[in-house]
Amino acid sequence: MEPFFVPIGKDGVTTALQKLDRQLQQTGRTSLLSKKHPVSWTGREVPPGNLGLINHGGLPKILTRPGRYPGFPLRNWWAREWCGTQGLSDTAIEFKGLTVVQVSQNQAAVVSDPQNRIFVIKNSGFVAYAIEGTYNVLAIVDQTHLQTAISDHVTGSTLGWTHEVKMRSRVGTGRDQEYVVALFLNIPANNCAILQRGDDLELLPAGQHYITNPNVTLRGLYTLGENQLEMPTKDIFTRDQVPVGLRIYLKWQLIEPLKLTTHGYSTPYDALRDKTQSILTQIVAHLDYSSMVKQRSLGPDNFDDGTDPSSAFLDALRTRAMDEMHEAALEYGIVLKDLAVIDRQFKGEIASTMDKLTTRALQAQVEAANVDRENSNKVKQEEGALAVARIKVQARNTQADSEAYSVIAAAKAQAERTKIEALAQAEAIRLTAEAEAEAIRIKAAADGAVVDQFAREMGMRRVEVSRIQAFGDRTVFVPSDGPGNQMGTAMAMGMAAAMGSDARK
User: Fold this and answer.
1) pLDDT tens across 53-69, in order?
2) CB environment 407-421: b (16+ within 10 A), e (fewer)
């Protein structure tokens, strides 16, 4: 540790200044803290939480106690100059060789000592007095918001942020030049950085870092997540010498950045590009134009359909090429997750002619597809009309069934009503007949109970009167038993004979 350099502890800046003042006095140097005592009624004011600064013949004097400091007696201010105040919580105070630095959690102070050695203060502070040279605060850096963003020039993803701190120095010619003395890094999660010191490489994980050692340099920032990219290739010739340009899709993940940096590549894409071009050249060189026209893409799912006699060979070649590509990527610390050709463009006169023929064939296919679509639409329309008719017929059948059911139900109800009425009428007749019969029996019993002869005779006369009233006074009543029966029969036979004689005339 440098002499007259006191870290700021939990007791704060004032305690650190007192420790520094005792060190100066122990070495026979001028005291740093002023012995003046404040008053309350006049003079220069030092508010609470501030330091008073006095220039005493080119040396610093510090007032730590708040209050007013009068300008008399005159001997107290002889060869002294009032230079104002500074807050105790200020990040940096520089006054006549005295340096006070205290930074917060996200801040970092870059400081050069009297020998121009660079050091960084984080989450703490110090007070120092330089006897020869000065302590210079070069920069106060916000570590969470660095100025320069570093992006992958291939994928465009952000790899991290950096900030360079420079120091201005005067060289022998009298000119001022700036030199980078510190580099701050803010590396997001799932990313890393590679540092180089001589021939050694070191992996720097995600987080906030800084570099002040001139022997350590930053090789690059890398992402450890998955990356994907579409890129065009150089022209490749098919088996029948038709040039074709491909657009490929790459998907990879870097798992060992040290291997990639050891091979001298700045990005995983640079390591994969040449090998991918070589593999696609091998694949396309065994395909002819017609087979490539049938296939819009060359990938694991649709490389061949099994109808080409050479498809098995091509599939085996693709498999071996992918295996070789995977092994080559592992040498660079890369896992190749997908490689496919998503588009192709044929070039040259042959390709132009074949494209015309292919276009005509495609147009014919499109027309045929349109006709099929129209026919399918018509069939669907007819099927829809038939379905509607079926629904209507079903509705009519349902309605007829409902009406028939209503008629049957009404007939059943009417029959049941008639039956009930007939049963009621028969029951009424039966009851009436029973009542009349009972009345007759009662009347007959009453008549039979009569013992007087005159009463009996009168009763028979009343019956005779009732019979004549019922059948008329011209009716002849013939007895049905005894001699009267025979006489009635004879009269009936004579009447019949007379009627037959009249009918023959």
Assistant:
1) 988 888 899 999 999 98
2) eeeeeeeeeeeeeee
Instruction: Give the contacts of 47 (CB within 8 A, at least 6 positions apart).
Output: 66, 85
Q: What is the DSSP letter of 20?
A: H
Length of the chain: 505
Task: Please report, for residues 238, 246, 338, the alpha-carbon distance to residue 232 in angstroms, rounded to integers and kept in the order given.
Answer: 17, 6, 16
Q: What are phi and psi of 339, to 5 degrees?
A: -145, 120
Residue 194 bridge partners (DSSP): 203, 220
Report the pLDDT averaged over residues 351-376.
80
Report how far residue 125's alpha carbon sits from residue 14's, in angstroms, rounded to the nearest whole number: 12
Q: Which two three-digit tokens encode residue 355?
A: 């494209």
Distance between CA atoms of residues 254 and 277, nearest Å: 20
User: Can you tell me the mean pLDDT for 365-388?
Assistant: 86
Calculate the average pLDDT of the chain.
82
More confident residue, 298 or 494: 494
Please tell me which residue, 354 or 132, carries the higher pLDDT value.
132
At 444, phi and psi to the nearest 5?
Answer: -65, -40
Which of these, 50, 78, 51, 77, lies nearest to 62 by C-alpha position?
Answer: 51
Report the predicted TM-score, pTM, of the whole model to 2 decimal places: 0.61
Query: In this model, does residue 348 exceed pLDDT 50?
Result: yes
Please confirm whether the linkage preceding 73 is cis (ω < 30° from 0): yes
Pairing of strands 107-112, 136-142: antiparallel
Which amino acid, one-letter code, is at 235?
D
Cα distances from 343 to residues 351, 419, 456, in angstroms, run 15, 91, 138
Q: CA 456, CA 462: separation in Å to the nearest integer? A: 10
Whether 101 and 92 have beta carbons less than 8 Å apart is answered as: yes
